[in-house]
Amino acid sequence: MSDHDSRITPDQQVLDSDAVALQESKLQRGEGCADDPLWRDADGDGCEIYRFAIESGKGTRELICNGGGENPPSVALRGAPRAWVADATARVFCPVTCGVC
What we know:
This is Subtilisin. The protein has 101 residues and is mainly alpha-helical. The chain is 26% helix and 6% strand. The chain has helices spanning 21-28, 47-55, 61-65, 90-93; strands spanning 68-70, 83-85. Strands 1-2 form a two-stranded antiparallel ribbon. It is globular. It starts with 20 loop residues before the first helix and ends in an 8-residue tail after the last helix.
């Protein structure tokens, strides 16, 4: 989630992993509604960085928690579209930040 080339691969930008199945089932049962302080994406960013990007207005919650994309000009810095690369599993491991619960 920075200005460097991301290590997040295209398959990490979609939520389709067996590794997140347990956490998803907990959320569906109403359990485990807390951001995981140990979770990191491939770039080393955790929930706190995702939360900062959302709260500072650098990107929308929908964009940042769903694998990235392009900010609309009204949200992007200096009015220019900005592409975000984000790990879609943030939605599962950062449910508070991503507004899941």
